[in-house]
Amino acid sequence: MIRLSKQTDYGFMALAHLAVQPTGATCCAREIATAYGIPPALMAKLLQRLARKGLLCAQHGARGGYQMVRPASEITLREVIEAIEGPMALTDCATPGGGDCAQTECCNVARPLRSLQSKIVDLLGRTTVGELVTGNAGVAVEIVR
Question: Model pTM?
Answer without folding.
Answer: 0.85
